[in-house]
Batch of 2 targets.
Target 1
Amino acid sequence: MVQGINGLATMFYFCSNPRMERIERDELSAILLSAPGWARVGLTMPDAHMRERAADTLAATIIEKLQGVPAPDVNQLRLPL
């Protein structure tokens, strides 16, 4: 996870690389809305640990959708643990 202002500046520089793919606003909005509801609400929590977990989950959702990780096959049988 990015720590502090310097970490954020480094991440912004990394994400601002002109050779990287750009994300359209509509696509990003759809990705954020597909994230778990607790993560979207969790960003507003007073507990710092909860906010960090929520931000991490939102970031993971964005990365997963942009990398095109396939969803589990609906025909796959669930095995009991």
Target 2
Amino acid sequence: MPTTKAEDRDLLEYNPKHSVLICRECQYAIQKNALESHLLRHKIYRSERQRLIASVSQLTILEPDDVLLPTADSPPVEGISILAGYRCTSSDCQHLTVSEKRMKRHWSETHGSDKIIPKLSTFAVAVSLQTFFRGTKVKYFEVTPLTSPSAESLEDGTDKDVSMSDHDGSQDGDEATGLHLAEITTPPTPVSVPMFESRMPNGLGSDMEILKYFHHFTTATCLTLPSMEGVDVVDTYWQVDVVAQALSHRWLMYGVLALAASHLSCLTDDAAAKQTHRQIAAHFLYDFYPGLEKESGLGKASASEAGNTLLEMASDCDEKRTPQNSGMPTAMANALRTLPFRLAGCTNRPDDPQDVVASMTAIANLFESCELSFGQDDMKVSWQSMAGWLLKISQHFEQMTVRSDPVALVVVAYWTILLVTRAQQLGCWFLTGVAEAILRQISGQLSANNQPALALIEDLIREKHT
């Protein structure tokens, strides 16, 4: 199949020569076992997703390690982004990378000595690169486009890193970026913004408008965010540490501005203003995600840590901390304790014993997280308890949720009702509407095929409100 339509756009394209499935919007190939989650990122929902998966199942799709790479004299593979990169010119080497820094490090570690690294142009040449896959499966190959890449960046050995909008990585597993925000199916129209050059919607075309969001973050938003464990002066983490990093990393600044815009959307009651702030936040995020992925791939700890904090809001949950007395309401505690037995009565015996192990572990971790959250009325603790449970769930349990396993969906619903709503009530304004959206989606999936499981969720909601 040349292309496969997803709703009103040609999203997927099969390349029979290399036996890979290419996402036309993301411009890279998708592994077969990652197709469902990738379609979810593009907001392709159940009926349409099942149609696409059924169509793709008829194709021969190779695993990343089995895909034969084109030769260097081949034209670019259609649908895959072309990256400006470098090839090592040492005999029998042919090392490829899109990062000047990594090429210099490669030369030093593989071909160099204790001598000063010479000019880049003496051991590398500018080339055009592509990679079928991203993440841990990135593997660059050289192609020959109609126009050759410029060699201007090879003039001297000074350290000129690729810009925040470029891709980066290495053949040993770094991730080349190019991610698209799930809520935005097509890139917003670029508007000239001298300070940040972000893709902004109409009405936000000046530095002054952008500075208003930055000012709001430094004077208001940062004061509402959970402080972090392991930070020496927790009260200044968002206002000082994160801001300092953002001033040095353009992509991180986009994340800060997106958070400020989201905060303003929660503060206003005006529907039009709320919608405007949300749209602006989405456009800032569009430029934030690729930078975060790239920085994480390069292993730059401080900036990527701040970026992941903005993305996950306190991902380093303190797992060892246990309150002396749990304030969890008795009815909720009993509901969690009896949940495994009640689930057994409304679902069939699982084919895979690991389903039972993963579910029981998730429930036990949920009970511990609830004890921590309800132990004190503190926004920081409630957030860390909520986020901490997500960090503890096993990969097998994640797979159960992807395939809409009723047991996994009920456990996620309990986490939502008990921990997400509590964190939101204790001051995590950025969670407004999240619980309702999760429960609405879970209810829609269970109402069609498992009413008893849905009843367990409805029972907990009633107990919570009594």
